[in-house]
Amino acid sequence: MQGEMSILQLVLDASLLVQAVMLILVLASVASWALMFRKRAVVNDAVETAEEFEDHFWSGGNLAEIYARVGSSEEANGGMERMFRAGFREFSRMRKQGASPEAQVEASQRAMRISLAREEDELESHLPFLATVGSTSPYIGLFGTVWGIMNSFRALGTQQQATLATVAPGIAEALIATALGLFAAIPAVIGYNRYASSVERLCGRYETFMEEFISILQRHAHAQASQTPQEQRD
């Protein structure tokens, strides 16, 4: 308890600039933790919905039936469903217009790539903030430390007899800024690396599904084109 009161007293006795540095670092740390908890929920939900959709998609069934299920609501359940809906909707529209198989597939692929880009932007949102906190917090803390030590030595120059007891409090309060910088930076770096890797793997999963789905649409388009008009009506 005494140690806690001593640290608190050192913070309260610090100069305004050092206190401002400490406040910035504390706020950055709190924001980083809040963002990491939110990003964890978003990534876990995206992975779960992707697994559910893949299980349903690869279990068999007509593509039109799958589209009818995921297209019945305005909000698709997960990024992979949104990609599927965008691709199949464009594929159906081009087919109704009598476009060539190549045009049908190209339009569907273009729509899915746009949807994929949106999903990537959503998943990667706020990750640069974690990277910024992780890279700049130690330097912000070091700035507060240098400023505090500089003030301690300036005050020391006005005294006739210098002892360790006279400079220790000023140096200690300055070093707290460095400690807070590391406290804010280390979790932010770990969180950024973890969630950037998770997002990269998930986006790779989306891209794999997109390529597989485009191959399926390509087979459907060419099969439809090879049918006679009577077979298409049947």
TrEMBL record:
Asked if the record carries the keyword NADP, the reply is no
| Gene Ontology CC annotations of this record | plasma membrane
Please, one GO biological process term?
protein import
Q: Which keywords has UniProt assigned to this entry?
A: Cell cycle, Cell division, Cell inner membrane, Cell membrane, Membrane, Transmembrane, Transmembrane helix
Give the domain of life: Bacteria
Q: What role does this protein play? A: Part of the Tol-Pal system, which plays a role in outer membrane invagination during cell division and is important for maintaining outer membrane integrity.
Q: How does it assemble?
A: The Tol-Pal system is composed of five core proteins: the inner membrane proteins TolA, TolQ and TolR, the periplasmic protein TolB and the outer membrane protein Pal. They form a network linking the inner and outer membranes and the peptidoglycan layer.
The protein's matches in NCBIfam families, at most eight in alphabetical order, are given as: tolQ
Q: What is this protein called?
A: Tol-Pal system protein TolQ
